[in-house]
Amino acid sequence: MTTTAPALVDFDDVLARYEPTLGLEVHVELSTATKMFCGCPTDFGAEPNTQVCPTCLGLPGSLPVVNQAAVEAAIRIGLALNCSIAPWGRFARKNYFYPDMPKNFQTSQYDEPIAVNGWMDVQLEDGEVVRVGIERAHMEEDTGKSLHVGGADGRIHGAEYSLLDYNRAGVPLIEIVTKMIPDTGARAPEVARAYVTQLRDLIKSLGVSDVRMDQGSMRCDVNLSLSPTGSGVLGTRTETKNVNSLRSVERAVRFEMQRQAGVLDGGGSIVQETRHFEEQSGSTRPGRRKETSEDYRYFPEPDLVPIAPSAEWVEELRGTLPELPWEHRKRIQEAWGLSDEELRDLVNAGALELIEATVAEGAPAGEARSWWVAYLAQQANMRGVELADLPITPAQVARVIALVAAGDLNNKLARQVVDGVLAGEGEPDEVVEKRGLKVVSDDGALIAAVDEALAAQPDVVEKIKGGKVQAAGAIVGAVMKATKGQADAKRVRELIIERCS
Amino acid sequence: MPADSGPAVSGPDSRGPDSTGAISRDEVAHLARLARLAVTDDELDVFAGQLDVILGAVARVGEVAAEDIPPTSHAVPLQNVFRPDVRRPGLSQEQTLACAPAAEEGRFRVPRILGEEQ
Amino acid sequence: MSDLTRLTAAELATRIHTGDVSAVEAAQAHLDRIAEVDGEVHAFLHVGAEAALANAALVDEAIKAGTAPASPLAGVPLALKDVFTTVDMPTTCGSKMLEGWRPPYDATLTARLRAAGITIMGKTNMDEFAMGSSTEHSAYGPTRNPWDLSRIPGGSGGGSAAALAAFEAPLAIGTDTGGSIRQPAAVTGTVGVKPTYGGVSRYGLVACASSLDQGGPCARTVLDAALLHEVIAGHDPLDSTSIDAPVPAVVEAARIGAQGDLSGVRIGVVRELGGEGYQPGVRASFDAALRRLEKLGAEIVEVSCPHFEYGLAAYYLILPSEVSSNLARFDAMRYGLRVDKGASAEEVMAATREAGFGPEAKRRIILGTYALSSGYYDAYYGQAQKVRTLISRDFAAAFEQADVLVSPTAPTTAFPIGEKVDDPLAMYLNDLATIPTNLAGVAGMSVPSGLAEEDGLPVGLQVMAPALGEAVMYRVGAAFEAARDADEGGPLIARVPEVAK
């Protein structure tokens, strides 16, 4: 672009003059064992071109066969989004040339999607609920990955050549498209983020994808247009791609609102185009203009036969839907007696599932919660990782809690055990063993330490004998120090009283 | 596919199969670009003429009254053909790259890509 | 010429399995024959002598060890159309685009031939990507018709048909998208069968038009074709369009047919396939064939298929549309030709496709790109798909009145090389009678009906049957063949002149 872009408009000023209309397209990579149309693995991060076969490489003569698990996942996602499941539909070929697409067409359900016309109630921070309409959810295949060599930052511009890896080619994708979301006003960025967050939680609860935006298993395109307030005329929309985190969703909406308002205020018009979100600056930039308008020349995929889910099959799948994550949370909130704020903190910290899992392993809810939000959250923070990515399992945490409850560990020792687990020293019991962390409650060893401490502080002994039992604390402290914290403090106190009476 | 597969034939530029002179040289050039064929000028001349004749002949399908007839995309009426979500052995990296015009670091090496991903 | 090359596949198999002749001798005899005549005929693009002899040796070992032969055709040489992938031989599809390409996988059909112990002699010439009716559109030069070396052997499977007629192999494989098995069979005096769509796996068959392509057997006798049919047909989970049903008992049907009784069989003459546009000698041969069928006890009825006259038009919209998409993968990125002209992937793609495809491939790609374009889709591709429905309905109605339908296979006998190569429309007319079966997915075969009076060249009788109705088709074909051979004092193929060198 040769002309300089108009300045961004202050967000409040945007709202004074324009109404935003949102639309969100989310791509979710399914975590099926195999790809959409062939038996290749879908694992993330494998050596390049090692998870490929004639079909996903598009070799001459190869043919696709639909993965039943992908269809089931698509139907379950559709049902969870209150969609109707199409009784009959075909795949289509979307024809365009691009080197990361081995056949130079993408096999996708084009105008016969498996799920249509649903909705999801999205809850905002303050409890307000916005119903987002779902236009469709359809199945398609992912592309390969290109690595651009020779340009700055591996970007496509200025690259000398590209390297292609087709491990990702053919991984099943579900594309979920909302209807237009009008009337969100100032809350548009928040609604967008809340929708994507809630969709992520929903799909995670279905167990059909790991929905990792950072790894690209969930990707979001943001459609946004502005119309002059009260005009009732829908504005021209832009589609912003490459929005790869929840925070970016919010920022992208906000930025496009501000940018588009700037263009419109200056008397310009919005170009219907694809834009790219820039993570660092939080801005969007236009994609490369195409010489000719795209014409994808869709036609029904002759190599695949129609999918016609029977009512029985759909109902069977409906029966497998888990409790919705937000309903589940409500139940947990009541069971654990959490305030809205406490619940939100747990959810935001990504601790809820971990605590639940820990409880499921037999730990009391209070202790489980306290471990995850306090000591473990601290550890995650120090390591700069998500709570869920700490190298400790809910089962291990539950075991530590059980050891404390049995009196085998005190809190200080318990933290050392957790440190050991995090350091990869094995299961909690192994760490206790190896580090020799068990509480000393054997009287023989304790009596010697108690007597030694009493002998060193005759004045305190006098006080205790004189009835000032609280003075025993000083002796307890000395014993704990002498035993490096491994003594059972309760037993130590009992022994002190015994010896002084 | 159903009607929304593209804009309906309308406007001054559109030409249905009924019109004479089905295809122009420019149109053939545009189609060749879409199909990634760097055709020569001579070829364009030849193809434009030939395609015009062929299109004139195939436009006969328009003579059939078929408004209420469902289209056939598949010759045999099969449906719901699936495979179980079970892994099958694929190709090794070596096999995969054996036929590549160029390869580097386990990947296919291709000239720089101008367009954006779709 | 060795007598072994003059035997039918069934005769040769018997001699091999009884130990009278070794499979190695049979393979060697045909290799010698290929060396002797293929310089003139040019049926083969690649001869795999070593692998052929190795396979034959394995068959001989098994026979010596007293093991039952892997199939009734074990040890019999076969010529494979160069459109099926083979790991041990190049697969070029008659195109410069795939010159020297060694697929990393075997087609299902190839694997079945190997499992049956059939000796694959090599890969046969064809019109580029199976598009043509004369084999002149091969990038590797035309194949010549053994009946008259100045004439075409039909196409696209001219190589396979010519190999049979020149006694270079007793069995061959072809593919039939609009007549590419049957029309070459007709003009070379051999037998060719297009099975029901979905009857033979397309996995590893490099696609021309996916919804029309079907691999099938080629031979010099109906029984040989039936024997080969039973080897290659049957469900394949790697092909979604493969029919999961028992293979029709075509060998039994051919044996029954050869006994010469067709009483109770109703044979429908398609009014729209004949008359104007058909060479007088072709019409005369067809009329004689009808009289012969009647003499065998069949009831001849006339049927009308009013939409067949639109078959050619519908076909030349559907086929190029699918071709334009199927051939998009040949883009110089992953395999095949790369013309390093231009700095970008886009330029290299366009330059490679320009250099790698011949004129007929380009014409059809452009035509298909046009027919699928938005704005033209409904008028062309969409309307063609409706005509396809009407043609299927015509067949259904006709099969109410008749068990099989008959017509001349091709409107003319073999024409001189070069006569139609620059006139695409004239070339397309060769497929007039064969196209409807492909559009409807039903079965069709061509059996030699005689020689045209005016030029002494072979004419084919086309027999068509409903989906999976191959048994009655083979029965009629075999009965006709037996009667014709008896009346004429021997098989037609015996009258092919020795190849002039």
Structural features, described:
The complex is a heterotrimer of chains A (501), B (118) and C (501). Chain A is 39% helix and 18% strand. Chain A is an alpha+beta fold and 501 residues long. In chain A, strands 3-6-7-10-1-11-12-13-14 form a nine-stranded mixed sheet. In chain A, strands 5-4-15 form a three-stranded antiparallel sheet, with no helix packed on it. Chain B has 118 residues and is an alpha+beta fold. Chain B has a domain at 16-66: Histone, subunit A (Orthogonal Bundle). Chain B is 29% helix and 8% strand. Chain B has helices at 25-34, 41-58, 93-98; strands at residues 82-83, 103-104, 107-111. Chain B has a two-stranded antiparallel sheet. In chain B, β2 (103-104) and β3 form a beta hairpin. The two termini of chain B are 22 Å apart. Chain C has 501 residues and is an alpha/beta fold. Helices cover 40% and strands 12% of the residues of chain C. Chain C has 16 helices and eleven strands. The mean pLDDT of chain C is 97. The interface between B and C is large, with 66 and 78 residues.
